[in-house]
Specification:
The complex is a heterodimer.
Chain A lengths: L5 E3 L6 H15 L2 H4 L6 H13 L2 E4 L8 E4 L4 E4 L1 H8 L3 H26 L6 E3 L9 H13 L2 H9 L4 H8 L3 H9 L7
Parallel strand pairs in A: 2-4
Antiparallel strand pairs in A: 1-5, 3-4
Chain B lengths: L2 H12 L4 H8 L3 H8 L8 H11 L4 H11 L11 H13 L5 H16 L1
Helix pairs in contact in B: 1-5, 2-3
Classes of the chains: A mainly alpha, B mainly alpha.
Amino acid sequence: MGSGRKVPVVPPKSWAEIGLISLKLIKTAYPELLATPAPIPLDDFFEFKMRGILGFDYDINDLPVGIEAAMDPQEKLVILSPETYENLIHGLARARFTVAHEIGHLILHAKYLRHRLLDGGNILKLNRGDIPAFRDPECQANAFAASFLMPTHHVDRMVHEGAEILSLVETFEVSWESAEYRMNNLWRYKK
Amino acid sequence: MARFGRYLRELREKAGMKIKDLAQAMGWTTVYISDIELGRRNPPSPAKIRQIASVLGVDPTELLDLADREKKKVVLDLDDESPGRMGFALTLARSWDGLTDDEIAEMKAILNRRVKN
C-alpha cells in the first residue's frame, strides 16, 4: 500500500511493547512454541483459536480488488479473500504475513477504533508519510506480524549463533524480505 | 440470529475440519460455506444438510431442526404413490392456521408415541 493513503492515527506503541503482546499471544495459543522455534500454525489459529482467545470470528469473502484481508472492528470479524485463505492453508509466506498483520490490527487497534466509532468521536486520519511509525497502524501491525511469526528471543538466539536470513525463512515459514527486515530491526524490539 | 450457521461452525470446528475441507467434500466454495455459517445465506436443502452431517460424522437431526426453524418452513418429501400420506400432509397444511393448542397437543401425543416405539 502506498504511503499516500490516509490511515487513522492510533495510540503510540513501542516495538518492544508490541513484541511482548505477540509473545503473550503465543504463550496463550501455542506455549510449546516459546521453547522451540517453529512456524506458528496460522491456519489453525485463524479457524480454531482466534475466536476463543481474541473474540473475533473469521470470514472468507470476496474483497475489493487488491485487498487480501481486512479486519472489521464493529462486526468483530477478520475477513480473508478466498485466495488469501487458500494460500494460508498452503503455508505461503505472503498469506501468513498478511493474516498475522490483520491479527495485529485486531489486537492493537480494534478496541480503540470500535470505542471511537461507538462514542461518535472523530478518528484523526492522516497520510501515512505524516505519521510517526509508532502511531501508524500499518507499521504497528507489521511490527506485530514480524514478532508473532518470528519471536524476538528465538531470532536473537539464532542470530547470536550465526544464523543467516535463510535460516529464519526456513524455520518460521516467512518470506526473505520479512526475515531480512526482522534481522535488521531486531534492536527495536529490545528495551 | 443465524443459529443454524453458528451450530454448523461449532460442529465443523469440533470435527477439526477446516472450511476448505468441508467445501471440498460438498463441492462448494469456501465463500459459500462462510456465508452459511455467518447467516448471510439460508440453510441448504435437507438432503444437503444430511450430507454435511455425514461428512462431519454427526447426527443431522439438530441441524435439520435449526434449518426448519430458521426458514420458518417445513418441507415434506411426498410420495405420489402414497395418497394417504399426501392427503394427510395437505389436510395438515390446510388446517394449520386454525389448529387450537389442544388439537396440537393431541396430535403431538400421537406422534410422540410413535417416535418412542
